[in-house]
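Lab notebook, page 48
Experiment: co-folding of the full assembly
Goal: obtain a model of how the components sit together before planning crosslinking
Operator: M.T.
Materials (sequences as entered):
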Amino acid sequence: MKNFAQILNSFYTFFIEIGELSYFTKRFFKEVFTKPFEFKELLRQCYNMGNKSLLLVGVTGFILGLVFTLQSRPTLLEFGAASWMPSMVSISIVRELGPVIIALICAGKISSGIGAELGSMRVTEQIDAMEVSGTNPFKYLVITRIMAATLMLPLLIIFGDAIALFGSAIVENLKGDVSFLLYFNKVFDALKFSDIIPATVKTFFFGFAIGLVGCFKGYYCKKGTVGVGEASNSAVVYTSMLLFVIDFIAVFVSDIFFEI
Amino acid sequence: MKNTINIVTVLKIKDLKKSFGDNQVLNNFSMELYEGENLVIMGKSGSGKSVMIKCLVGLMQPDSGTIEIMNRNIANLTQNEFNELRTDIGFLFQGSALYDSMTVRENLEFPLRKQKRKSEDTDKLVIKALESVGLADAIDLMPEELSGGMKRRVALARSIILLPKIIIYDEPTTGLDPITAKEIIQLMQSIQQSYKTSSLIITHDVDCARVISNRMILLIDGINYAEGTFKELSTSKDKKIQAFFK
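Observation: model returned without errors.
Model output:
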């Protein structure tokens, strides 16, 4: 009976949180188009999220392309289909692996960073101090971060995809004597409009989810320093879950429009 | 030296109520702050002092009651009007609440962003405010490079940068050593005299109350339990009042 009550309580808390997140999202769309616009802070956040994530995304993309090619190569060789390697790798990386894996990496870095930063600002009354000085902290802190994440994630993913393909090309060059020129010719032959557009569009939603959940968790952080840790941690967990949901919906919708 | 007080009300609270679940924190609390005075509110931890000032500046919504700042009922103001009114109120937070990611200069410039001033004017205001707290040399430091007392002084400079008519101090001396606490009290007095502000001071530091108050209110059980000068209250025979001065 006690367990049942606990499960019921967890569901209740979950749905309350979904409701609060919906209200937070509504507030974002209500305030994003109204003045004043915090362009300077937006640029600063774009720099923080974009530039400072480049190395992590680059390394992840490189290893992704490298490992994926190394693992797939023997199987393709077995079937005598080694020449299909660039096409298979490029389609897999551009359509699915690149966006999802890099978004997950960014959820860990960006979303938890936002959660921790805003959370500590909340518990040390910095957000209250902004509000008292007549500044709208939601506009200054939340809108700029969500916008920056939405704008920067597609760029990071394109960058990560390119590095992943470069990593794959290195393996093909070393193991299969395929020149870089031939490899990338095959890559661009294989990639179609219907591969690139849906994959790029969904990355904007990934970025939005990363910014939104991080800000939501940090902005409403409670319970002192423990709350900051919880905000940071739950931002990563919730964002990761949301990324898979968005990915599922994106694939479903792409299938309707592009018959992938 | 105590300042001159005019009987002009700048802040008025009437029958303020606020509860959290079954816990009634404020129960018909009323008070007035007059122009140019230093009003100290004392109360035990959890007595609702911080809740009261949070209601005053709109960080919390009271359950009922009215709050008038400069004769304007804040419940009837739009968000923009209230934000405008907030620029007349300086607020010194208990933990200073300096923005970690900004330098001292940026911390002080932040409240000025909405006012379209020339950068030279902004610089002058920032330097003047920092000079008034004796920290002009710390202008380019980050908050993490400052001591607790310096942070409090920078926060004080930030709270006066918009030349407010009222300054609210939330436990201004808490967490400071006696010497630094004394310096902060002296600064509060000098700022009050140079900027001609009215001050609402929340504290449980009796020394601070003795030095700075023109009038005191004891907040007990969510009500304005006793009101008077420091001398009147400290010599009261009421046991609940005496407990504060032992």
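Interpretation: Strands of chain B lie at 9-20, 23-34, 38-42, 64-69, 72-73, 89-92, 166-170, 198-202, 215-220, 223-228.
Next step: discuss with group before ordering constructs.
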